């Protein structure tokens, strides 16, 4: 009987899908001021017959069946002796996750920005699957928006993507294949099974056994010291890419939980024209669209700082952490270890727009070719400790260091250059909402889509009351680059 019971427990616990150390770290990273979920704001033009909440629910209901993670929640292991596991939500309620909101007249873009700034900082409910969708009606010109929130712990590129990718499709109209398949949730493991599974996983990973089963205060302190030492080694690797601490900047401040959010729409063709006109000389082919985007942001920062009355000298810079895809033309590997994080000083003290571009292009090329960029594995290890009781230590250490390593995070993700649809409604534009790290008053997300380049500026409400001025400065910086005039 004991053998049969042991086998049953083994089968049950091994069915549980344990979070990776990196995914778990995103859960432990959250504080009252830092919500670790990513969002998107997609603006649509409805078809003549309209688009309603019930249609959005049907689209999501028909497609999440292929991605079980969207109907699973996180379950902690007693005592946190191992990473949490994903389990089916037996009380899954799609109506809780898909919500409806309306803007008052006139339904301006500013009102949409205010709505996003209110709903995005709110933490996702840990007792349910970690995503939400809002259908926002009442935008002027008959448009509507879909606002999404997906926790970083859920997005691993293999078992689940951002919920936004589930909603839109390259094919117009609802897919007849998106039929609601019958779903029966699996029974979640008991506390005994969770603990047994943790021990089994520890046996499979001998290096973790001591950390998992040792008890007593002294042993816990020893484990903690090893985690700090490990964190220090990884952080030293990252710090070497930065050479020296990030410059002082109003972009680094103590942040609260309230946000301001600004969206900016620009034309991709403008960046292509700038690249074609300014990317000349021995390294012309090495100037990328991403370099032009960064130069545009650098010019925006320059004007914003000057407008604030900040001291701007020829050597003034803003240090940006810029994740760069290295999978080239092969998107099949985009979710693997195919991202490099470059730390680049944006030369905001340089008055010449074209010179800013060439300096940024050179710095980016130097990091990519010189092996100074930090691989995804190193970044993952920054908070990837086990057991999970030490994740908070690693995450807080990494967060505290980040404000000294860089001033702002800038993510630029290329999207499709053909229209996408939610049912029969065409997506006109899409704006990312990237979270703020501790001590970071601003994050900038950028997405290119169907001939446009769309910025989402997420900022702390008190530290960045003039983030809309920065947005306008970025628009003016692009105009400066395209016109060829120098400030």
From TrEMBL:
Residue runs in coiled coils: none
UniProt entry keywords in alphabetical sequence: Acyltransferase, Glycerol metabolism, Lipid biosynthesis, Lipid metabolism, Transferase
SUPFAM superfamilies in the cross-refs: CoA-dependent acyltransferases (SSF52777)
GO MF term list: diacylglycerol O-acyltransferase activity
Ranges of residues in domain O-acyltransferase WSD1-like N-terminal: 19-293
Domain of life where this protein originates: Bacteria
Top enzyme class: transferase
InterPro entries: Acyl_transf_WS/DGAT, O-acyltransferase_WSD1-like, O-acyltransferase_WSD1_C, O-acyltransferase_WSD1_N
Pfam families: WS_DGAT_C (PF06974), WS_DGAT_cat (PF03007)
GO cellular component terms, A-Z: plasma membrane
Pathway: Glycerolipid metabolism; triacylglycerol biosynthesis; Lipid metabolism
Assigned EC number: 2.3.1.20
Ranges for domain O-acyltransferase WSD1 C-terminal: 337-481
Reaction it catalyzes: an acyl-CoA + a 1,2-diacyl-sn-glycerol = a triacyl-sn-glycerol + CoA
Any one GO BP annotation for this protein: glycerol metabolic process
Family: Belongs to the long-chain O-acyltransferase family.
Protein's name according to its UniProt entry: Diacylglycerol O-acyltransferase
